[in-house]
Amino acid sequence: MDRTIDNGAGRPPASTRPAPRRAWLDGRLAGATLQAGGMLQLAGQAFWRGFRPPYDYGPELVEQLRFALRISLFPLVLTAFALSFGPAGIQASNFLGLFGALDRLGGVYVIVVIREFAPLVTAIVVAGVAGTAICADLGARRVREEIDALEVLGIDTVRALVVPRLFAIVIVCVLFDVFALLAGVLGAVLVVVQNHAPVGPFFSTFFSSATTLELAASFVKCAIYGVMIAIVCCYKGINASGGAAGVGRAVNQSVVVAFLATGAINYVFTQLLLATNPILSEVR
């Protein structure tokens, strides 16, 4: 016999209805899962179509490279120099100076600059400057229905819009890693000079501790950051809705997701690198 109590509105009893908080959490998790799958799908489509002829996205690729270099280079150099000289250099030099081992500052900067700060600063600056610009541009095109018009005309929007921005961001991230390394080393030299110590011992320990493996890993990490930033920003921009306010929300979400993904990628990549190459954990 059915003992279900009717509450007068045709709804199941309160004890069988999901709690509002749980329903909200389930909806958020489902939405996040769908977006993650959409980003992976977009990444696969972009690489598949980007490496297949015809390669007619060259002019747009060059334009995106110029744009990213113009708006991101100065903030990158300034941020890398400031972080290298301030939080890392001053604190490390004060600690090593207590033991009279300021010459070991070069070994510290191998970990600080090459392994961590240079790729991290590159990802943060590119995501915050170039990534947001890309998201805003694609979002504005979506709300103005320009992307819909391109699709109606039979133009492959992934090849025309996503592929050149993806390749441009990856190239820019790898190139900016070099500038971040140079700015970081310049900040370290300034720290040494500020402490009235010779520069020679610093470079001696720096080059004796640095390896080509760490430099290559730094470039690979920046390339992964570039792929992630480009895909996140392009996906959020292309799927923007709700007019100008929706574009603003998409830009905000793209920055938050890119920063969180940067931290996750950095943790996983560094742990895998150290686990597969124990020599990097040895004191040299």
TrEMBL record:
Keywords: Membrane, Transmembrane, Transmembrane helix. One of its GO terms (cellular component) is ATP-binding cassette (ABC) transporter complex. GO terms for molecular function: phospholipid transporter activity. InterPro entries: Permease_MalE (IPR030802). The keyword Transmembrane helix applies. The chain crosses the membrane at residues 68-88, 120-140, 166-193, 213-235, 255-274. It holds the Pfam family MlaE. PANTHER family: ABC TRANSPORTER PERMEASE PROTEIN-RELATED, PROTEIN TRIGALACTOSYLDIACYLGLYCEROL 1, CHLOROPLASTIC. This is Putative ABC-transporter integral membrane protein.
